[in-house]
Amino acid sequence: MKKIRELASSLVRQYGTSSPFELCDCLSVDIYRCELPAQMGGVSFQTQASGCIILLNQDLRSVESRYCCAHELGHVMLHPGLNAQTIAGHTCLCIPRFEREADFFAACLLIDPSLDEWSGCFDPLTVEQIACLAGLPLSVTDLWLENR
Questions:
Q1: In angstroms, rounded to a whole number, what is the distance separating the alpha carbons of residues 141 and 129?
Q2: If DSSP states are collapsed to H, E and C, what string results for the chain?
Q3: Is residue 60 within 8 Å of 47, Cβ to Cβ?
Q4: Domain 2-146 top-level CATH class
């Protein structure tokens, strides 16, 4: 997980932003909003013609869309050339591990690193407060806390 944290930090330093949308723009990853099944927030894949593409469910609220984009960017950066359908259909690779890694990448991008500095000045923030501030699901925030 340390390498994932370092990759996220490196991207933020290099491009001067932690916005997954701006990072996708800098990295030439195309984002399209489209109709997807309700349970699917997004999907990423590579094409030979145009490189990496992220599809986001058009029904996501802004904060959900930001998290989903960060998660899918995690797949693009950490698992190039793989997608869940390919993995499930043609390999014995562990999909939950890849999802966990993409979630951790999203958390490293979206949780403000200065939270550690502030927590010394006040009562420590709860997992719920961190999740709310970062716009992340509790499970993703828990993953970040377990690996900081």
A1: 10
A2: CHHHHHHHHHHHHHHCCCCHHHHHHHCCCEEEEECCCCCCCEEEEEECCCEEEEEEECCCCHHHHHHHHHHHHHHHHHCCCCCHHHHHHHCCCCHHHHHHHHHHHHHHHHCCCCHHHHHCCCCCCCHHHHHHHHCCCHHHHHHHHHCC
A3: no
A4: mainly alpha
Tokens representing 118 are: 């502030």
Q: What is the pLDDT of residues 5-50, one digit of tens each?
A: 999 999 999 999 999 999 999 999 999 999 999 999 999 988 776 6
Rounded-to-10 torsion of CA 54, 136, 112, 84? -40
The residue ranges of every structural domain in the chain are 2-146
